[in-house]
Amino acid sequence: MKNLLIIIISFLTVVSCSSTKKLSDPETLPKDISFKPENNVSQIEDRENLKQLIGEIDSLISTEVCNDPTEWTFTAIGAKPCGGPSSYLAYPKKLAEEILPKVTQFTAMQDAINKKYHLMSDCAVVLPPSEIICENGKAVLTGGRLDKKEEVE
User: Which domain of life, per UniProt (predicted)?
Assistant: First the structure.
């Protein structure tokens, strides 16, 4: 009886493991979830919404010319998948009430997208800038990551 049970279990194991498809057939391999059409459409829409919102923020900022850096300040914007801001943004202090809610909305949207699509990043810490200078009427953040100048348009 014991031998018959072992033979039956062995037979069922072998039968359940057999497949009519070849494992080397690309159609049988699992697909990356990011290639699913509904995810691509959704991700494209989400990125477009982010792009539209940053465009609104940039449009507000571009209404002001930077002549005096003391009239400008900066804030963290965006969310890296590993945590922390993705960058910093200079803006005129007098437009804070209009800009800061949009920055908060952008950061929350980017964080949600990172989580929704399980995005990854370099996890490098983006340091805050050390100062704002005015060049050609635009605010430029200096210091921060690698001490490079980043122009804010």
Answer: Bacteria
147: left (phi over 0), alpha (psi -120 to 50) or beta: left
First to last CA, the chain: 82
The parent domain of residue 71 ranges over 37-151
In a domain, 92, yes or no: yes
* Domain count across the chain: 1
The tens digit of pLDDT for each residue in 72-91 reads 999 999 999 999 999 999 99
- pLDDT of the residue at 59: 97
The answer as to whether 62 is a domain residue is yes
Assigned domain for 86 exists: yes
d(CA 80, CA 10): 51
State the angle between helix axes of 96-116 and 37-62 in degrees (0 to 180), rounded to the nearest 10.
160
pTM for the whole thing? 0.69
The answer to the question of residue 3 being in a domain is no
pLDDT at 6 over 80: no
- What pLDDT was estimated at residue 9? 74
